[in-house]
Design a protein that fits this description.
InterPro entries: PsdUridine_synth_cat_dom_sf (IPR020103), PsdUridine_synth_RsuA/RluA (IPR006145), RluA_PseudoU_synthase (IPR050188). GO terms for molecular function: catalytic activity, acting on RNA; pseudouridine synthase activity; RNA binding. The chain has about 290 residues and is an alpha+beta fold. It has three domains: about 5-60, no CATH class; about 60-150, Pseudouridine synthase (2-Layer Sandwich), CATH 3.30.2350; about 160-285, 2-Layer Sandwich (Pseudouridine synthase), CATH 3.30.2350. The chain has helices at about 15-25, 30-35, 40, 55-60, 105-110, 145-150, 155, 230-240; strands spanning about 5-10, 50-55, 75, 80-85, 135-140, 160-170, 175-180, 195, 200-215, 220-225, 260-270, 270-275. The protein is elongated and about 75 Å long.
């Protein structure tokens, strides 16, 4: 789908589109490179000419006010946090203005004033991120001061990160598991897992089998995440021989969704406990 544009009428002649956009929209060279081709940026225009500019450029950094996804369930709210349940197959934040099925567009429809937190970044006040495929508890911090403090100390203030997932096969493993992980920064590439010391990052989680469905040959597993690396649960369980149901990227079988859900997040902030739970919906439906 072609990005939407809007017409901009010039009040005076310009010698260079690039110089005009830099001075009028305070746009950097990198931002211009993302939205326009070099020949267009080099063009000159006379007074009263019309420039067709992408809305993604004009509204760069803004959150689309039209939410078009499934209803998002609000879990709790207090003076510090706005907590909600992210749906599966949904982005937590957009990368461009025209994206409207994301959690921040939902927040803009319900509580637009919250988007002033961490104003210059697309993830705003989201304390952490969940993968597109993952559902569950999301915590949004309601002030800049607290957001900065918690982001800088997240590994110490996050006391529990508990996930539920369905895995292929009958899993009899239990206890803690430590492995090493490749950086996983390159999009479209699997995170590689090996024994400790092989790769640059160390990751740890604890496993507990909750229920085995013999007819499906699948096990419901509770995962306590000790670290928080990209694709950690998905990659680590696949390495252990139990890929997640629906996670074809890491060797799981096709299903209605990727069955991974952030069940519980517990924080300790200034001596006070904050615990949030979200029971997954339609989590047994294969």
């Amino acid at each position: 789908m072609e990005p939407k544009t809007t017409d901009y009428c010039l009040l005076q002649s310009i010698d260079s589109v690039e110089d005009f956009l830099k001075s009028t929209f305070h746009a950097s060279s990198n931002k211009l490179k993302k939205h326009f081709k070099k020949p267009f940026l080099a063009r000159s225009f006379k007074e009263k000419a019309t420039l067709s500019l992408p809305l993604n450029f004009i509204n760069d950094g803004e959150i689309n006010p039209h939410y078009e996804g499934e209803e998002i369930r609000i879990i709790a709210e207090d003076e510090n946090f706005f907590v909600f349940n992210k749906n599966p197959n949904q982005f937590v934040h957009p990368l461009t203005y025209d994206e409207s099925d994301n959690c921040l567009s939902f927040i803009r429809t319900k509580r637009p004033e919250l988007l002033s937190v961490n104003r210059t970044q697309y993830d705003r006040g989201l304390l952490y991120r969940l993968d597109y495929e993952t559902s569950g508890v999301m915590i949004y911090v309601k002030s800049d001061e607290l957001y900065k403090k918690l982001r800088e100390s997240f590994s110490t203030i996050a006391k529990a990160k508990i996930y539920w997932c369905w895995v292929e096969g009958e899993m009899k493993l239990s206890g803690s598991f430590k492995h090493s992980f490749s950086s996983g920064e390159e999009k479209g590439k699997r995170v590689l897992v090996a024994e400790a010391g092989v790769h640059s990052q160390e990751g740890e989680l604890a496993l507990k089998a909750l229920r085995y469905e013999k007819s499906l040959n699948r096990t419901l597993v509770e995962v306590t995440l000790k670290t928080g690396l990209r694709h950690q649960i998905r990659a680590q369980l696949a390495y252990l021989g139990y890929p997640l149901v629906g996670d074809k990227f890491y060797g799981g079988k096709e299903a209605k969704r990727l069955y991974l859900h952030a069940q519980t997040y517990r924080l300790e902030v200034d001596g006070k406990d904050y615990s949030y739970d979200s029971t997954p919906l339609n989590f047994d439906g294969f």
